[in-house]
């Protein structure tokens, strides 16, 4: 930003001469009708105007010329600088002193007004920069914003240096950056290490071309801002340097806030990862031990006492091994599916399938567990084909049915309903159990969440996997309590394309 200075240009002196000439002409017209004291006022007015417009030098010239013109034209003998009455010498002296005092005061007021204007502009720029820094979320945006505002306000080139992973200062890219020479890098390191400004306008290497100010946070230095002004006298007075330090301090606060936010986010991620790992280990260790213990016990009994057991007991033990192995397989399958979902490795193999076949395959997988239940299916014959990964959608239905079996009384009915609109197919799996507690309709889809009272069985991943698979298909899944009792899980499968009229028999 431009610093207020006196105008030592030829135009200012030319205007000073013109103003005195104009005041002389006006006084010449007033001379027949007014006293000399009134004529002096016109010259003082000219001095004030020149001081206001052009500063000290032209105003002093205007003051001296006003005295000379007044003596030459209006003090007898006229048209000469001789003075017949010596009392006019006092008049000339007072007139000159008053003119100089008025010009000096006017120049001072002008300079103070200019400084106040610049301070106001810098305060407004500081506010604008603070607002933009608050909106910026990454370090590069913060650096670019701070460099741009400092460049606009102080008319300087700016380089922001931040330490890398090894602690070495590196200049961050921004449009106002200037090439740093070896001396600049040395002064930047000194400012960073000693936490004090260095370079132009400071006690440390005042002969440098740039000033280097440390970015200080509550826990130590964050970096350095190097500013190279276009004029070397830009920071000769303390005021601009203090204002620059204010901009730099604001930048340091924004950078530290971003760093703390990143550290807090990393801490939250680590805490969440640790929580999930603990929950996973707890669930897996319990749910793996239970079927393994049952399998081991049944197999040991058959091996040790197989010859002494009757056929019915042997059959029950073998069926127990099979059931527990299937349960173990479902648990491992859920863990693998959740791992694929979390890592983004889940790939859909879409093809056109009739939904009733997928529902039938899911019912067949749970045939024995559903043997004592009445399962009602309502699938319209004109239900369109859907482009899905049939294996994954079958897994969704198996998980929903398994959830209904675990959380409802034995022999209670289950129904499966499929409906279609122009945009999507909706599948509903409803039971007649106790339903969900109020407010937990969305919570049941969280990983490792297990409801009561059957919360001891399963790792709490089934519904979370359902949600991931349905969302991967572009649909959504939700739960709602039924007025007559029980809960319904519904999911949609979008009909993005027109299904074919039929599918090949080998599809």
Summary, kept brief:
The protein has 507 residues and is of the alpha+beta class.
Describe, in plain words, how this protein is organized in 3D:
The chain has 507 residues and is of the alpha+beta class. The chain folds into three domains: 10-120, no CATH class; 137-258, 2-Layer Sandwich (Beta-Lactamase); 351-494, Heat Shock Protein 90. It is 55% helix and 14% strand. The chain contains eleven helices and twelve strands. The protein has helices at residues 10-30, 36-54, 56-74, 87-135, 139-154, 182-194, 238-305, 311-343, 355-365, 390-406, 462-472; strands at 156-163, 169-172, 198-199, 211-217, 220-229, 351-353, 375-378, 386-388, 414-420, 424-431, 477-481, 487-494. The strands form three sheets. The protein has a five-stranded antiparallel beta sheet with strand order 2-1-5-4-3, with helices on both faces. A five-stranded mixed beta sheet has the order 7-9-10-12-11. The longest helix is centred in the middle third of the chain and has 68 residues, at 238-305. The radius of gyration is 44 Å and the shape is elongated. Residues 1-8 have low confidence and may be disordered.
Low-confidence stretches: 1-8
In whole angstroms, the N-to-C terminal distance is 75 Å
Radius of gyration: 44 Å
CATH architectural grouping of the largest domain: 2-Layer Sandwich
Proportion in helices: 40-55%
Mean pLDDT over the full residue set:
80
